[in-house]
Amino acid sequence: MSEKLDVKITKKTHTGWVAETEVVLEEIQYNDIGEMVPAKRVLTFSTSKKRVGLISTFASVSLLVKKAGYTTNITEIFGDFCKSYNPVEVKTVTEKSVRAAHEKALEQADTFIEMAKAHYAAKQQKAA
Question: Which of 25, 100, 116, 126 could disulfide-link to 81, CB 3.0 to 4.6 Å?
């Protein structure tokens, strides 16, 4: 990727270390119960433990809708883009191993950004 992406690493109680990076794909108008509101279509790369000894990355798209002072994250089940990739076997899931796996996964970010954009272009064309 030509630009540096921000990586946020946190430790969660149920999954342990998680690295996340968000990329805004586009800004759109979203129909929220008859009212058009601004929204951002965001591709999130999330790297964490999937099972004992395995870290992998999940690339998924959702809409961030800001309205009345709060932001809602909206996902269309079976309709939004999502892919699991970059499985990495490790002995122990640590902050260092999650960071390394996430950085390796982000090397493919451009490919996933293009795949996500193509997914929504096809959906829009089909709806027209």
Answer: 116
Dihedral of alpha carbons 101, 9, 11, 45, sign: negative
Q: In this structure, is residue 3 part of a structural domain?
A: no
Domain extent at residue 89: 8-127
Domain assignment of residue 108, yes or no: yes
Q: Can you tell me the distance from the alpha carbon of 53 to that of 75, in angstroms, rounded to the nearest whole number?
A: 29
With respect to residue 2, please indicate whether it lies within any of the assigned structural domains. no
Q: What distances in angstroms separate CA 74 from CA 11, 78, 79, 80, 103, one per listed residue?
A: 24, 13, 11, 10, 26
Residues 48 and 94 sit within 8 Å (Cβ to Cβ): no
Number of domains comprising the chain: 1
**How does pLDDT run along the chain (128 residues), one tens digit per residue?**
546 789 999 998 887 999 999 999 999 999 888 888 899 999 999 999 988 889 999 999 999 998 888 899 999 999 999 999 999 999 989 999 999 999 999 999 999 999 999 999 999 888 87
